Amino acid sequence: MAKTIIVSNRLPISLRHRNGRFEFKPSAGGLATGLGSIYKSGENIWIGWPGNTVEDPEQRAEIILELHELKMAPVFLTKKDVEEFYEGFSNETLWPAFHYFTQYMVYNPEHWEAYKRVNQMFCEAILKKADPEDTIWVHDYQLLLLPKLLRDALPNATIAFFQHIPFPSYEIIRMIPWRKELLEGICGSDLIGFHTYDDMRHFLSAVGRITGLSSESGYIQAENRIINVDSFPMGIDYGKFEKQAKSRKTQNIVKNFRNQVGDSKLILTIDRLDYSKGIPQRIHVFHELLKKHKDLHGKISMIMIVVPSRDKVQSYKELKEEIDLLVGRVNAEYSTLNWVPIHYFYRGFPFEELSAFYSMSDIALVTPLRDGMNLVCKEFVASKTDRSGVLILSEMAGASKELQDAVLVNPNDKQGVIDAIYQALTMKPQEQKARIVSMQYNLKKYDIFQWVKVFTDRLAHVKKKQAELVSK
Ligand code: GDG
Question: How far is the centre of ligand 1, averaged over its atoms, from the C-alpha of 448 (Å)?
């Protein structure tokens, strides 16, 4: 029977060195949970990089065996691969381009060579496991060339691709010297998915203009196949967030945290360290709010969690320093002995504490300058089991297309965001409840499990349609 292979740059585990040995820490992320029902069943498997470099052949052999038990297979990257393929081409060329930060784009031919080399390594690792009729589901921007490499080797395989970050306008894509190869790479798939309709439109326009392939109603006509392109907005594991928020453990943490911060109104912000998330801009807004509204002094605090990420990339190092400086300035200017305006944490928290932060906060301020989807805003809404609280959400996050009952803002409009915070602070409980309930209804219905189902059902449909066209 044909099996399914999930492929992503990172495996849903982290490999850590401890006392000369390796330890595996499973990822509790939504994607890993959603795809769990797939890769953990039958002969299915997940292939990817375990997140650490391992040079010793004996250790590699040991890791392969251990991962096999977890239904995973590793692609080992060297230090050079990590620097040039991951930190280089993926995070210094594609990431800024796809998030409209063209000023950060690096055009380095050596990075491009590394990108091609590593995509080829992934292809070879998959070919060792794959049979000709298998289904292979490739994830995200680090592996754009992989669908075509696989198609060339396995013409009858079912190949799907999902991109988790935005797909920008043709005007941006055409700046990348290797744009044609990248688009042709993705087009090795049978089904291509994005979070939003706009991403899908941009992709189809770029494919038409750069590769010359035409499309109609979401179907690209390739030489001998049709390829379906559509939007599949990703959901969260709603039940898990709801259950955790109601749990005694989380509620005890809430009590404890509340004792420490007092009864200040709390604005929560949670992001990976990334310039696309608009963190400095948000601090400027909060600074301005405190300047203009003296009545809020001592009555409102921001809890700002920044999760360390890509800190070897220069633009990220600079961003971290900028955030440190800005938080320091606001706190230095306004703190009192019993009030801290910004509680800033540069680290991640265990899930129960994350749930407590969601549960106890009055406002979630989610204002990325660009975001493929953004799951934090969805997790906040799912955790508001008492149906109070306000979500302020950037129009530039994919999630804003679904969460129309949030207070939507343009993150570049400083005054607009200040007004939104003020609106949230003064919003009547009845209105808060109406908005939260309506968003919860949608998030519960379209959770991560539904997302996987809709995507895989569509994939089956596309293959059927292809077969019908061939037999005509
Ligand atoms: C990419 C796209 C798209 C955060 N802090 C802690 C913690 N987190 C978890 C959150 C959430 C995840 O990290 C962040 O997800 P986002 O969606 O917000 O952002 P990216 O990492 O940039 O993800 C994005 C996503 O892919 C999926 O397609 O939505 O647009 O950029 O789940 O809960 N988890 C724990 N402690 C923390 O302190 N345990």
Answer: 14
Provide the CA 369 distance to its chain's centre, in angstroms: 14
Q: Is 305 in the pocket of ligand 1 (CB under 6 A)?
A: yes
Give SS3 for 120: helix
CA–CA distance, 146 with 152 (Å, rounded to integer): 10
Q: Residue 443 and residue 382: Cα distance in Å, rounded?
A: 7
- Compute the distance from residue 371 Cα to the ligand 1 centre, in Å: 11
As annotated, the active-site residues are 164, 371
Find the helix or strand (DSSP H, E) in which 117 lies: helix 109-129
Rounded-to-integer distance, Cα 231 and Cα 241, Å: 25
- Is 29's pLDDT higher than 80? no
Give, as one character, the DSSP assignment of residue 77. Answer: P
Q: Calculate mean pLDDT across residues 359-385.
A: 97
For residue 23, what are the β-bridge partners?
A: 16
Cα 125 from Cα 137, distance rounded (Å): 14
Q: Given the CA of residue 347, which atom of ligand 1 is nearest to it?
A: 38
Q: What is the pLDDT of residue 18?
A: 79
Nearest residue by C-alpha to atom 1 in ligand 1: 164
Q: ipTM, 2 decimals? A: 0.98
Residue-level pLDDT at 299: 96
Q: How far is the CA of 368 from the centre of ligand 1 (A)?
A: 12
Q: Is the pLDDT of residue 177 over 80?
A: yes
- Fill in the DSSP letter of residue 86: I
Which CA distances in Å does 128 have to 16, 148, 153?
26, 17, 12
- In this structure, what token pair is assigned to residue 348? 């991640």
Residue 27, SS3? coil
* 308-326 tens-digit pLDDT: 988 777 888 999 999 999 9
Ramachandran region, residue 430 (left: φ > 0; alpha: ψ -120 to 50; beta: rest): alpha
Q: Tokens 């006509």 identify what position?
A: 221
| CA–CA distance, 170 with 209 (Å, rounded to integer) | 8
270 lines ligand 1 (CB under 6 A): yes
Which pair of tokens denotes residue 235? 């959901």
The response to whether residue 373 sits with its C-beta less than 6 Å from ligand 1 reads yes
Q: Is the beta carbon of 192 within 6 A of some atom in ligand 1?
A: no
For the four alpha carbons of 243, 249, 252 and 253, in that order, the dihedral sign comes to negative
- CA–centroid distance, 173 to ligand 1, in Å, is 25
Residue 35 in contact with ligand 1 by CB distance below 6 A: no
pTM: 0.96
